[in-house]
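Supplementary Methods S3. Input chains for the assembly prediction are listed below.
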Amino acid sequence: MAGTSLVTARERALAVLGGEPDDATLRRYLHGIPGVDAVGLEQRAAGLGSRSIKTSSKAWALDKIISLIDLTTLEGADTPGKVRSLVGKALKPDSTDITTPRVAAVCVYGDLVGVAVDALGAAHGDPDDGLVSVAAVATAFPSGRASLDIKLADTADAVAAGADEIDMVIDRGAFLAGRYGEVFDQIAAVKAACVRPDGTSASLKVILETGELVTYDNVRRASWLSILAGGDFIKTSTGKVAPAATLPVTLLMLQVVRDWHLLTGQRIGVKPAGGIRTSKDAVKYLVTVAEIVGEDWLQPHLFRFGASSLLNDVLLQRQKLTTGRYSGPDYVTID
Amino acid sequence: MSFLDYAPAPESRSVLALRESYGLFIDGEFVEGRGTPFQTISPATEERLATIANANEADVSDAVAAARRAYDRVWSKMSGRDRGKYLFRIARLVQERARELAVAESLDNGKPIKESRDVDIPLVAAWFFYYAGWADKLDYAGLGANPRSLGVAGQVIPWNFPLLMLAWKIAPALATGNTVVLKPAETTPLTALIFAEILQQADLPPGVVSIVTGAGDTGAALVAHPDVDKVAFTGSTSVGRQIARTVAGTNKKVTLELGGKAANIVFDDAPIDQAVDGIVNGIFFNQGHVCCAGSRLLVQESIHDEVVERLKLRLSTLRLGDPLDKNTDIGAINSREQLERITRLSDLGDAEGAERWTAECEIPDNGFWFAPTIFTNVQTSHAIAREEIFGPVLSVLTFRTPGEAVAKANNTPYGLSAGIWTEKGSRMLQLADQLRAGVIWANTFNRFDPASPFGGYKESGYGREGGRHGLGAYLAPASSSAVSGGRGGAQRRVGASDASPALVSAAAGAEASAAGADAPAPKRVRATRSTRTAKKGAAK
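Predicted structure tokens for the full assembly:
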């Protein structure tokens, strides 16, 4: 998908902010957004989590979940072989049932992007066309503690290797210190580094690491800030910090993208990542998306699950629906 | 397919073993009623559920006589600790049969299963647990040492929370040593009758609780019965007035929980998404059949359009339909009569010039239904801003300053509840002080807890239920009228003196140690208990 260029990102920020995106202007804007009542938010999330999905709705939901997964391996011990395995699974999640849809993308470290691209071959491309994208984590993932030059180089490197999507982390330290302008500039700069020589751009997912932002008000402000600075997606977590994705946080981020859409007409994606392991949990997220921003948001360009172990549980549930029986973990592949 | 068409997931009715017909529950047994029996139906399908006995005046008299006997011979003489045991047992049985009770409640009332299962029934159990804990601690209820029970309580409850209202009435009455004759609403008697089975299961002594079913006449006979010492009523203000007239000039103590037209006040700095959820919960919970429903939305003018827009968006995701389906948010209106009232008042809103918006949803062919509705451009003089509609209809008004919000919120004959939405703590507290309502919720709405008192100002009634205050409605200080004596005074004195000397000394000891004196209170309390146990043994 073609992202917006730096200039337009800046323009949209200026239009919404009514001034230069410096600390003071951003602070006024972000702190002027209505607060979040934690009790109420969690209550609503619990309510959405209790919707009951069965039979035909469940079959639909399971396939939808698979098509929205960023199948992920982010270990220090990752090898080219591991990535090739991952790609194999992404293309054919369940060899016993060819009707199983492909996942949306594989998500790897920057140095393994090339391996993933090679392994995908002709199947590399837009998930809307039934192909699989390559997402790369960049910007000194997962801590984000490096100079901007390093972060930009990291990003450009992954884009050059063929990454379609860049998952960047924000500088939580700068955010918590109130240096909103700095966070804005970094996101905008990384967004610029996503641009390829032919003028197209990799899609930018901005990871807030909500577990380190702690309060819902912070999550809400960081979401707005990321969107203002040009993020195409907002993502909850790296998966390296607990708590990672939670339903209330995802609900809150969905409310932000809904509000941004009402304000500007633009659609921003949301990606909960980390900690979503079961189909049952994932279905709760689908319900939340459908009821907060609408069902048309349930497409790979607007919603993703960042997960590694979720897929197997979904496959087991899927097998159960077709055969009527539960099988064991050995009936799905391990990586 | 659309994901939001969630496949139907109705709760199974197999947990519920309904009888073909139910009698009156008097003196521990189900007996025939002498009035003409009536049917109870499911408001969602108009399907007949069971035939219910109708109690006439003679039946009510039998029930009151049984309650008096049980009071004199057993319940008033029993120690608080033993009464507590019965209440704990009832609470546990309610939990054990929770699913069955939830299904019965949703069938008979029309409320969504997720509300009966997740709100009503757990609260019913909580209420019995809470008052079970009070039964042996009445000396510490703030009414002085050794307060005494009143005698026979006649209780009349409404159809909106059939079992929860039963628990609000029966739990404190039994904990304080009173016996009860209760009349559930004629459209929703089922769970009260299943509760009667639970009382049998709990081995509660016969007559301590009797349940008489019937319509207004049965209730009137109960309230007017000369041997009833205490009347407790929850329902409409008009019936409340009749009751007040009936008991005027008698020795009966009365508590009334009546109507409401609560203001839900939203300031421009409110947590807006949660406020929208709170507005929805405030008025569309239980189809708006809530006396403390936030039916008047007072929203600050500067955010009026935004709030209304978000509210409409939110309402369009609400799902109306089969109350037994787990995915249902809005169930059926309880009766045709109530549906007609809601329709009439809403039409009045149109006629007065308010703007009606109704959520798009399919209305089932059978049963009684009313889609969630918002009226904007409502003026304070409109009937829909003043009269209790008791249905899923919200009237939206605006204000500009906190003072105006308070003035508009208080400008109602009612005063049961109110809600405030703001991020500013100081304003929240200041406003709460100025609002004339019994319950004020801040950044939430329609939350109930057995430890929190509930009751109204002005035409919303008098007396408090719930919490320590709820005990006061069923107790009198020992010193005052125990000597002068009302009906059954002699027995009451016997009941009271059963424990009094020992408990008084325990309380005195506790007070002394609280004052810093070094009194050996714990020892005395222990002695007290053994004395009381011995006495109880002797009485048997």
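The longest helix of chain B spans residues 113-134. Chain B touches chain A at residues 1-7, 9, 114, 118, 269-275, 277-278, 317, 326-327, 423, 443-444 (CB under 8 Å).
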